[in-house]
Design goal:
Distance between the termini: 44 Å
Structural class: alpha/beta
Order of helices and strands: HHEEEEEHEEEEHHHHHHHHH
Strand order of the largest sheet: 1-4-5-6-9
Strand content: 5-15%
């Protein structure tokens, strides 16, 4: 699935949330219209009828500015077709997912002789991530927003995903990781989302917390050890007996540290190195 098609899917699934975001006012009654326009058929990314305002909202998602025909001409073409079909005012917004090359002019108007047509452009890299982080429908876009620390923002996105209801979590996590791929390496994305899921795991937190509160009883220590061992096995494979013996000697505090460190392990040698240093 291409990045702009994923955004189209999200905006059709949550039209009121996307309309509220781009128009900066609450929109509660939104109808998704067909995307194929008449005459010579063309498809627009997202066309929504805002019933309360008697207006068409056209959202166009772009990963890059270059297109044929040029984007300003396409936006004019969409506007004419939409207005002819629905005879309503049309608000057009282009959502640029990535910044263009330095020095590139981002056009917001088509102008030729006496014809002038304007549209709005949202630059994702300039957007405040707060609203995106607080709205599950928009959360997959949050990693592309403005930040002084991009990796910290990605980590926050991963943590917010873990706080969603179970039925939403897997879907939003998938979408968020796909869109984060526009900006981050695959390995980093996988690490962040695995780490977020593990840290928010009720079982994991309960085992470690109760282990401390109950004086590190043997029963709780064994539960913690069992959980970390399962995670290790999935990450690097079955532990050799020597390594397993070292693992069995770890305290609950050391198991907690290992639980976070193992997310970066790729081979048994990584575990061997960690055990040697701890």
């Amino acid at each position: 699935m291409s990045f702009d098609n994923l955004c189209k899917l999200l905006s059709e699934k949550y039209p009121d949330r996307f309309a509220t975001w781009v128009l900066e006012s609450e929109q509660s009654s939104v109808e998704v219209l067909k995307t194929e326009l008449s005459i010579e058929p063309i498809r627009a990314d997202y066309i929504t009828f805002l019933q309360l305002q008697g207006r068409i909202l056209h959202l166009e998602f772009q990963t890059k500015l270059e297109s044929n025909p040029p984007l300003p001409l396409r936006m004019l073409d969409y506007w004419v077709r939409l207005h002819r079909l629905y005879r309503l005012p049309v608000t057009q917004v282009v959502v640029l997912l990535l910044p263009p090359a330095p020095g590139t002019i981002i056009e917001t108007v088509f102008e030729l002789e006496s014809t002038r047509h304007e549209y709005r452009v949202i630059r994702m890299w300039e957007q405040d991530p707060t609203q995106l982080l607080n709205e599950p429908a928009l959360l997959p876009l949050a990693s592309l927003a403005a930040s002084t620390n991009a990796e910290a923002l990605l980590q926050t996105v991963a943590q917010r995903v873990t706080q969603l209801e179970p039925e939403q979590r897997r879907e939003v996590s998938t979408y968020a990781q796909i869109l984060a791929g526009l900006k981050f390496e695959k390995g980093l994305i996988q690490q962040m989302f695995r780490e977020g899921m593990m840290r928010e795991s009720v079982i994991y937190q309960d085992i470690l917390q109760e282990g401390r509160q109950e004086g590190r009883t043997e029963g709780r220590l064994e539960e913690a050890r069992s959980l970390i061992l399962k995670l290790l096995t999935r990450q690097v494979g079955i532990l050799p007996q020597t390594m397993r013996s070292q693992f069995d000697e770890l305290s609950i505090d050391e198991l907690e540290v290992l639980g976070e460190a193992l997310l970066d392990f790729k081979h048994l040698t990584d575990l061997a190195s960690w055990l040697e240093n701890h």
